[in-house]
């Protein structure tokens, strides 16, 4: 496929195809259903089921592994069988997993339900994401902008992640089972919509055998370099859940402000992603966009590192954290859509699902290893600025790994 270059958006940019509109709405619905349940899962496991803290962490880790770690499997299956059966199967498993979780009261049942929920996403997410990327290339060839399509996909996902917890919090006033059944109900609607509207055969999509693609992927140094850069971005983003709460608690004595900072990040993505993508797409190549995004992310960590020796507390102490969130979010806007838009240029013909899934799986492994190291840094009794300086250096260091073309 051709390499994406910065182009001035046309005044007569083509409209999104019905398939693209369906897939983007799919991402919105997926995240509403998922995030209606996920934010309340750990509290339910600890208080409702009575699990010990270490077991709650273990179960949540299993969910991440069964989802992120198996994306590459779901992507390969989409290449082999097409996206329709894989997406429909994933929706069925997600419905069953949410319903099971709502009624699960024993540890074994909870673990089974959580694994089913994670594996469902490992099926449908890479299938949808790979087809969005492929359709974005088609849209570009018709005169549109590839990264704008991926930006719309990102905005839809972020909007779902914003609305989902609000719906879950509302339903939690009844009980956690109601939340789970509502999440299952959303996926019933998604399943029905896709059974009706998702084509049996998508023009231009080839089906390939499962075997034969792994060796070429592992030898594709440019793609693996992109995975490393994307993994560094995800590791930085993961600090919203790891390093940021500790910093907020240090500054204010509680973690309540973290929710507001999360809302700030979501609001920025929903309102600014498309204008940022439009502006950057007309001026920067994919590589330069990712370089700029990674440098912004590094700058966000540096803001906290520089301020830490001052030991600010209260409202003033929250300013570095807010600066970190803003810079990280703008960096995300530059990195995430471009990285996914770049994959079709690096993927082997007919194996875009495999490569899309591998991007998530490889970067997820990087996050897993990096988060362990980050936790050691934060708990190691080091000078307060040092962990943040190390975290600032990671996205800057991977800039040199990005493919030149």
Automatic annotation (TrEMBL):
<dbReference type="GO" id="GO:0022857">
    <property type="term" value="F:transmembrane transporter activity"/>
</dbReference>
<dbReference type="InterPro" id="IPR036259">
    <property type="entry name" value="MFS_trans_sf"/>
</dbReference>
<feature type="transmembrane region" description="Helical">
    <location>
        <begin position="289"/>
        <end position="306"/>
    </location>
</feature>
<feature type="domain" description="Major facilitator superfamily (MFS) profile">
    <location>
        <begin position="19"/>
        <end position="405"/>
    </location>
</feature>
<keyword id="KW-1003">Cell membrane</keyword>
<feature type="transmembrane region" description="Helical">
    <location>
        <begin position="385"/>
        <end position="402"/>
    </location>
</feature>
<feature type="transmembrane region" description="Helical">
    <location>
        <begin position="149"/>
        <end position="170"/>
    </location>
</feature>
<keyword id="KW-1133">Transmembrane helix</keyword>
<feature type="transmembrane region" description="Helical">
    <location>
        <begin position="352"/>
        <end position="373"/>
    </location>
</feature>
<keyword id="KW-0472">Membrane</keyword>
<protein>
    <submittedName>
        <fullName>Transport system permease</fullName>
    </submittedName>
</protein>
<feature type="transmembrane region" description="Helical">
    <location>
        <begin position="318"/>
        <end position="340"/>
    </location>
</feature>
<dbReference type="InterPro" id="IPR011701">
    <property type="entry name" value="MFS"/>
</dbReference>
<feature type="transmembrane region" description="Helical">
    <location>
        <begin position="256"/>
        <end position="277"/>
    </location>
</feature>
<feature type="transmembrane region" description="Helical">
    <location>
        <begin position="223"/>
        <end position="244"/>
    </location>
</feature>
<feature type="transmembrane region" description="Helical">
    <location>
        <begin position="20"/>
        <end position="41"/>
    </location>
</feature>
<feature type="transmembrane region" description="Helical">
    <location>
        <begin position="86"/>
        <end position="103"/>
    </location>
</feature>
<feature type="transmembrane region" description="Helical">
    <location>
        <begin position="109"/>
        <end position="128"/>
    </location>
</feature>
<feature type="transmembrane region" description="Helical">
    <location>
        <begin position="176"/>
        <end position="196"/>
    </location>
</feature>
<keyword id="KW-0813">Transport</keyword>
<keyword id="KW-0812">Transmembrane</keyword>
<dbReference type="Pfam" id="PF07690">
    <property type="entry name" value="MFS_1"/>
</dbReference>
<dbReference type="InterPro" id="IPR050171">
    <property type="entry name" value="MFS_Transporters"/>
</dbReference>
<feature type="transmembrane region" description="Helical">
    <location>
        <begin position="47"/>
        <end position="65"/>
    </location>
</feature>
<dbReference type="GO" id="GO:0005886">
    <property type="term" value="C:plasma membrane"/>
</dbReference>
<dbReference type="InterPro" id="IPR020846">
    <property type="entry name" value="MFS_dom"/>
</dbReference>
């Amino acid at each position: 496929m051709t390499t994406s270059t910065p182009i001035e958006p046309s005044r007569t940019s083509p409209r999104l195809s019905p398939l693209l509109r369906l897939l983007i709405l799919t991402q919105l619905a997926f995240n509403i259903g998922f995030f209606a349940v996920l934010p309340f899962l750990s509290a339910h496991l600890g208080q409702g089921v009575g699990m010990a803290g270490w077991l709650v962490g273990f179960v949540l880790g299993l969910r991440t592994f069964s989802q992120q770690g198996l994306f590459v499997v779901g992507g390969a299956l989409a290449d082999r069988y097409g996206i329709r059966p894989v997406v429909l199967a994933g929706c069925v498993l997600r419905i069953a997993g949410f319903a099971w979780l709502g009624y699960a009261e024993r540890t074994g049942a909870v673990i089974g339900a959580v694994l089913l929920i994670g594996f469902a996403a490992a099926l449908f997410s890479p299938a949808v994401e790979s087809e969005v990327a492929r359709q974005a290339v088609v849209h570009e060839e018709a005169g549109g902008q590839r990264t704008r399509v991926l930006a719309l996909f990102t905005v839809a996902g972020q909007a779902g992640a914003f609305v989902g917890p609000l719906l879950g919090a509302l339903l939690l006033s009844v009980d956690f089972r109601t939340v789970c059944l509502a999440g299952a109900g959303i996926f019933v609607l998604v399943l029905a919509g896709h059974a009706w509207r998702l084509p049996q055969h998508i023009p231009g999509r080839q089906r390939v055998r499962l075997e034969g693609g792994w060796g070429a992927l592992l030898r594709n140094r440019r793609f693996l370099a992109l995975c490393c850069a994307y993994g560094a971005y995800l590791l930085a983003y993961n600090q919203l859940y790891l390093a940021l709460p500790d910093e907020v608690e240090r500054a204010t004595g509680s973690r309540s402000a973290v929710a507001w900072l999360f809302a700030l990040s979501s609001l920025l993505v929903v309102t600014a992603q498309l204008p940022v993508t439009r502006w950057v797409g007309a001026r920067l190549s994919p590589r330069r966009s990712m370089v700029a995004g990674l440098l912004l992310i590094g700058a966000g960590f540096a803001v906290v590192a520089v301020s830490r020796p001052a030991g600010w507390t209260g409202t003033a102490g929250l300013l570095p954290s807010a600066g970190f969130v803003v810079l990280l979010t703008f960096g995300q806007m530059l990195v995430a859509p471009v990285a996914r838009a770049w994959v079709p240029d690096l993927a082997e013909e007919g194996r875009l699902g495999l490569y899309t899934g591998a991007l998530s799986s490889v970067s997820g492994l990087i996050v897993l290893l990096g988060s362990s190291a980050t936790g050691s840094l934060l708990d190691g009794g080091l000078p307060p600025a040092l962990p943040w300086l190390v975290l600032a250096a990671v996205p800057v260091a991977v800039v040199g790994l990005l493919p030149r073309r």
